[in-house]
Amino acid sequence: MLKKVILFLVLVGMISSLYTGCGGGKIEESADTTKLQSMAKIADTSSPESETKSEITYKAILRLGSNVAIEEPSLLDKLLKEKFNIVIDWDDIEQAEYDDKVRLLFTAGEIPDILFGIPNMLGKELAADGFMLPVDNYIDSLPNYLKIWDDIPGGWDYVYSLNKNADGYLYYLPPKRIRVASMSWIYRKGSFDDMGLSFPRTMDELYNVLKIIKQKYPDSIPIANRDGLGYLLRGFLYAYRVQPTVVSDDYVDVDTKKLVTFGSASDRFREAIKMISRMYSEGLIDKEFPTSTQDQWREKHAAGKTYIEFTWGTLKDDINKLVNGVDPNANWVWSEDMITAYPEQGYMYYREGATFGDVMMLTNKLPDEKLARILSYIDWSATDEGSDFLSWGAEGVTYETVNGVRKFLPHMFTVNNPTGKNAMSYTRYWQDAIPKRAREAHLATGQGAVTYAVGDNFNGKEGYAFFDTIPWDMTVDEESRIKELTSSLRSIRDEYVLKFIMGQLNPADDKTWNDYINTLNKAGLEELSALRTKLYDKLKK
């Protein structure tokens, strides 16, 4: 049953990213075990104990989606009351304030029953402090939820291993991501065509294309940057078959199948930095990339000075609008191809994780009766009927069916009615558990076409690979030590990489590079590598 509760929380917590203390005390093992055993007895919602005879009220905190104004009472509130005899006392908190307010509430002992849309890292933090209920013993009571993972390699077991806490328990049910990939190279095709240029598919070709653009337009910024060092590195690191630093520092090399414990110390990372440094010195990359803001990025595009970058494919539409005043024929498009430094080995693309980071969690203050009731809703919400409701709302209220095709009603948000009501205004959160339902609803708004096209293009494409997330299994102490070490190493790396790129240090000089590696070693690189290797070897047994 707890599984159902968690599922509900998790599903509700799935606020779409497409659009988008001491109050509890540590749960003692013996008390927790007793609680789990008790819950197991009522997990079967067909038993008399799970009947919805009396109304049950829950206190919940919702991480409110951006630009979402809830219609009170919402369709979800009505459905919960009519179908499950559940009433929820909502505390809606804006995204920007959510983390801080939740921490303050828990510190003050004002603990809700349910948290919707809580970032998983904050959730893990609160779980480690003993506030949350584990769902491990109840997952078998959520057959509909488990089915949504059948098409994922490794299935639920893999998803579970990626999301559990260091103590071995899982404290939330992850929402399923409905997209596979959404980042690609985008470029100014109108200008490329005018100059007789084709999209570059190798790093050498990219360098030559950038040189031609710079020569023709000396004041141009061939590669713009939207948000600091990590953002700039992404496309280049994929080209050199290195996991981008903003994703993870450790990964399994797709060619050697060996563990890389800190990619920023690898030979391929060095080659990538050498190329970026070369481009920077020749004015092919935005000189202000380390401090570039999104507003500055927009200004440079609006001035018509930019030509290519690695980013979200959907941004090509924004850029076309920005540059229209100076070049209505710019025609920014996303590329079906990636760029590689090693054409003989193929291409890498950014494969998004199977789950979203905004989840639902149940606190340990819930009595058994409340857990049983909410679990019945959670399992229903993972059915086709539940997903239809959470993705579309209600027929005649939010959508209509015309010739067998669902369409949002005129007062609802679409690209042609940007001030219309968002579906979450009625359902409170977006349902991604049944991807087909959520995808259809997203496309019906006129959004998402590029996002899904990018993912469909790269998914399974011949010659293309991606980095799998390693399902680490570590103790609380090991996790803490790794976080401490990586924090120090990342600071050193960023300092050196900026100097390498901007010409203050030469990454091609062996002595300089060795000084960088030695500095990392003194800060704990060797210890981190030994610890990661030990944990990885344990996983492989």
Q: From the 3D coordinates, which CATH architecture of the largest domain would you assign?
A: 3-Layer(aba) Sandwich
> Helix coverage percent of residues?
40-55%
Q: Strand sequence of the main sheet, in spatial order?
A: 2-1-3-11
Q: What is the overall silhouette? A: globular
The total count of strands amounts to 14
Q: What's the helix count?
A: 21
Spans with pLDDT under 50 lasting ≥5 residues?
Answer: 1-50
Write out key terms for the chains shown.
single chain, 541 residues, alpha/beta, D-Maltodextrin-Binding Protein, domain 2, 44% helix, 12% strand
How would you describe what is shown here?
The protein is of the alpha/beta class and about 550 residues long. It has three domains: about 1-180 and about 355-385, Periplasmic binding protein-like II (D-Maltodextrin-Binding Protein, domain 2); about 185-350, D-Maltodextrin-Binding Protein, domain 2 (3-Layer(aba) Sandwich); about 475-540. The protein is built from 21 helices and 14 strands. The protein has helices at about 1-15, 30-40, 75-85, 95-105, 120-130, 145, 155-165, 190-195, 205-215, 230-240, 265-280, 295-300, 315-325, 370-380, 385-390, 425, 435-445, 450-460, 475-500, 510-520, 525-540, and strands at about 55-65, 85-95, 115-120, 185-190, 220-225, 250, 260, 305-310, 330-335, 345-350, 360, 400, 405-410, 465. A four-stranded mixed beta sheet has the order 2-1-3-11. A four-stranded mixed beta sheet has the order 5-8-4-9. The protein has a two-stranded antiparallel sheet with strand order 6-7. A hairpin with a 6-residue loop joins strand 6 and strand 7. Helix 1 (about 1-15) packs across helix 14 and helix 12 (about 295-300) crosses helix 13. The longest helix is centred in the last third of the chain and has 26 residues, at about 475-500. Residues about 1-50 have low confidence and may be disordered.
